[in-house]
Automatic annotation (TrEMBL):
PANTHER family: TRANSCRIPTION FACTOR SCREAM-LIKE PROTEIN (PTHR31945:SF5), TRANSCRIPTION FACTOR SCREAM2-RELATED (PTHR31945). Its main location: nucleus. It is found in: Nucleus. Residues 68-144 form the Plant bHLH transcription factor ACT-like domain. Keywords: Coiled coil, Nucleus. Residues 35-62 form a coiled coil. GO terms for cellular component: nucleus. This is Plant bHLH transcription factor ACT-like domain-containing protein. It comes from Zizania palustris. GO terms for molecular function: DNA-binding transcription factor activity; sequence-specific DNA binding. It comes from the Eukaryota. Transmembrane segments: none annotated. InterPro entries: bHLH-TF_ACT-like_plant, TF_AMS/ICE1/BHLH6-like.
Length: 158
């Protein structure tokens, strides 16, 4: 027979498990399954935090002068790129990055005067699934590569 104190502890534990179930959007009924779902939820959150930290580092890494936004459009993407400084070959580098991801550019508008602007609509190859994050990272990498190359050329000219 359970004492009053043991019943209170068991009730408190059940209440905490139900809160955990609610927070993690678990549909599990058993305590073990609720805890397993919570563990998976924590793992997903850790991955999201790591990805966001990586994106933040990439954005800061590119001197804060560059903005890349990617939106999913059906079976493709709307990509907007702004760079505070245009460098030779930047458009080509970005288009090559699209190609490596299996994206076909359907329509694009670009300006490469002092600053660089690109708005492109790309459709993905149905065989290769690509997400917004991958497109954004590829574009940021293309900008970094182009900026590094331009910096190296400036040093060589001196």
């Amino acid at each position: 027979m359970m004492s009053s104190r043991e019943r209170k502890k068991a009730a408190a534990l059940q209440e905490k498990l139900q809160i955990l179930r609610s927070i993690t959007h678990s549909h599990a009924l058993s305590n073990t399954s609720i805890i397993m779902d919570a563990s998976m939820y924590i793992k997903e959150l850790k991955q999201k935090v790591a990805r966001l930290n990586q994106e933040t580092a990439c954005a800061q890494d590119v001197l804060g002068q560059n903005r890349v936004t990617v939106e999913t459009l059906g079976h493709g993407f709307l990509v907007n790129v702004f760079s505070g400084k245009s460098c030779p070959g930047l458009l080509v580098s970005i288009l090559e990055a699209f190609d490596e991801l299996g994206l076909s550019v359907l329509e694009a508008t670009a300006s490469c005067a002092d600053t660089f602007r690109l708005q492109a609509i790309g459709s993905e190859n149905p065989v290769e699934k690509v997400d917004e994050h991958a497109v954004k990272q590829a574009v940021l990498q293309a900008i970094r590569t182009c900026s590094d190359t331009a910096r190296d050329d400036d040093v060589d000219d001196e």
